[in-house]
Amino acid sequence: MSFIRIQTVLNIVFIVIGALSVMACASDKALSEKLSLSGMNPLPEDAYGAVYIDSPTTGSLLHLRGTVGNGVMLLRNSQSEYCSIKAVKFAAGDFEGKDISVTQADDVRLIIYNQEIARHLLSGGEVVSEDIVITNSLSQTVGDIHVHSGIELTQGFVLNPSEWFLASLFDSDDDQLDCTEKRIY
Q1: What per-residue confidence (pLDDT) applies to 117?
Q2: 53 contacts 90 by C-beta, under 8 angstroms
Q3: In the chain, which stretches have pLDDT less than 70?
Q4: Residues facing residue 75 across a β-bridge
Q5: Strand 134-135 relative to strand 100-104: parallel, antiparallel, unpaired?
Q6: I need a labelling partner for 146 at 20 to 30 A (CA). Which of 12, 31, 73, 136 fits?
Q7: Which residues fall within 8 angstroms of residue 152, CB to CB, at 6 or more apart?
Q8: What is this structure's pTM?
Q9: 3-state class (DSSP) for residue 122
Q10: Which of 64, 31, 68 is nearest to 167 (CA)?
């Protein structure tokens, strides 16, 4: 009897994981459709990628402040005319909190100017801001990643390309777009 119960529980777990993976695939497709239908700016010619985090959540706890969200990365392939779309998890934080609150934050836009960082993200690697040069519009030079909007330079951040293992089994093809088409950024 206990073997049948264990088998039933395992079957339910596998069904739930499969359903979540299919939902993740559908979510990634919806994000890529949003990108392809958006009518804003194209990826800058000298950029190797961009990160779009729409409607992240920010929270403050006295002196601590954190921002988290899910979004997409548009990463230029080696052919440089086509871009891959990948899901990304974003977390940022610093010690600039002033109260206790949780709110919706401004959209985060990051432009990637370092080819090695774009390749690392494209291959599924994580990027931590303290390991690279980050700049914004007030900076005199262009860094590895340029903060276009949504966070301050005081905030450290992590970019984590997220791919559900089972989602990749169901949908192994990367979404590809023409890098010169209009985009959100």
Answers
A1: 93
A2: yes
A3: 1-42, 78-82, 163-185
A4: 49, 84
A5: unpaired
A6: 31
A7: 94, 96, 136
A8: 0.70
A9: helix
A10: 31
CA distances from 137 to 13, 45, 108 (A): 48, 17, 14
Q: Which tokens in the block code for residue 82?
A: 């086509």
- DSSP code at position 178: E
Tell me how far CA of residue 148 lies from CA of 29, 72, 96, 135, 178, in angstroms.
25, 15, 20, 9, 21
Return the pLDDT at 175. Answer: 59
Place of tokens 């919706």: 104
The structural domains of the chain, with segments of one domain joined by +, span: 2-178
d(CA 181, CA 37): 10
85-102: pLDDT as tens digits: 889 999 999 898 889 989
Contact 144, 113 (CB under 8 A): yes
Cβ neighbours of 18 (radius 10 Å): 14
- The set of residues, in sequence order, having a beta carbon less than 8 Å from that of 78 and lying 6+ positions away, is none
Q: Are strands 145-149 and 134-135 parallel, antiparallel or unpaired?
A: parallel
Q: What is the pLDDT of residue 176?
A: 59
39-69 pLDDT per residue, tens: 335 678 788 999 999 999 999 898 898 999 9
Task: Locate 172 and state its tokens.
Answer: 């192994």
13 — phi, psi (to 5°)?
A: -60, -45
Q: For residue 45, which amino acid is it?
A: E
